[in-house]
Amino acid sequence: MKKRVYLIANPTKQGSSEVLERACGIVRGAGCEARSFTDPVELFASGEAEPPCCVVVIGGDGTVLRAVSSAVNNGIAVNAPILGINYGKIGFFSETDIDGFAGAFAGFLAGEHRVDRASMLHAECGGRGFVCLNDFMIGKQGFSSVAHLEVMIDGSSMGMVHADGVIVSSATGSTGYSISAGGPIVAPKLDVIIVTPVCPHSLTVRPVVASFDSVVTVVAHSDCVLHSDGAQLMQLEKGSVLTVSKSEHSIGFVRLGERNIFKLIREKLA
């Protein structure tokens, strides 16, 4: 039986359909079955008894985040590892570009790879639950307003934070929105939860790194908005309570060689 590979591309990026077609050709040329999708939920909810050997995601980091979060938040487990083809600006999650995909895919089929697991976060608010790969962000409603938030870690209060918002991120998300807001870079293989204030009105409010087993509670003392991996989820009325903790879900990424995250940051965020 042929190995099955699912492929998805960001349809909003010009030329992505051509890249998708080229990638499908490489997969088929390697003797595998290629199935392409346009909707992440349809991709992961294909109903096959056996999952594909991998999922090829073509696009930037946002494409990977949307594909993963839309699947998990629709109750679909992402069992197959993701092999990313960078067709975006940064591509932290990607392992290759389209020109190097043939060699990368051959290495994957030959077993010359490893699968790095990335932990995810779970948030609950008002009886609703969400899962993210990078971060949750509780932010102010309007450009001229301020978010007034009380933040607690395992019941211990950090005090009131008056800021544009607060980011609660995973280790993977440390190189996302959090790093732009002054949060720390988390070394590989270290699972933590990072709480990063965004433009706080007090210089004494600093980012905090907590155990991945911790529970972060954020109480909104003003009307706010909840975002997950860059997408708006819901309005948070004054008095809303959000809890963030580790998720039972994790995502695998195909890696063909050693990754120096510090070098990646220098190269991609220069």
Question: What can be said about this structure in brief?
Answer:
By secondary structure, the chain is of the alpha+beta class. The protein is built from six helices and 16 strands. The strands form three sheets. It has a six-stranded antiparallel β-sheet with strand order 6-5-16-13-8-9, covered by helices on one side. It has a six-stranded antiparallel β-sheet with strand order 12-11-10-7-14-15, with no helix packed on it.
Explain what the structure shows.
The protein is an alpha+beta fold. It has 2 domains: 109 residues, Probable inorganic polyphosphate/atp-NAD kinase, domain 1 (Rossmann fold, 3-Layer(aba) Sandwich), CATH 3.40.50; 128 residues, Sandwich (Tumour Suppressor Smad4). Helices cover 19% and strands 40% of the residues. A hairpin with a 2-residue loop joins strand 14 and strand 15. It is elongated, with a radius of gyration of 19 Å. The termini are far apart. The model has no long low-confidence stretch (mean pLDDT 90).
Task: List the defining traits of the structure above.
6-stranded antiparallel β-sheet, Tumour Suppressor Smad4, 270 residues, 6 helices, 2 domains, alpha+beta, Rossmann fold, elongated
Per CATH, which architecture of the largest domain? Sandwich
Query: Could you state the CATH homologous superfamily of the largest domain?
Result: Probable inorganic polyphosphate/atp-NAD kinase, domain 2
C-alpha geometry? elongated
> What pattern of helices and strands is seen along the backbone?
EHEHEHEHEEEEEEHEEEEEEH
Question: Would you tell me the structural class of the helices and strands?
Answer: alpha+beta
Order of the strands making up the biggest sheet:
6-5-16-13-8-9
Q: End-to-end distance, in Å?
A: 45 Å
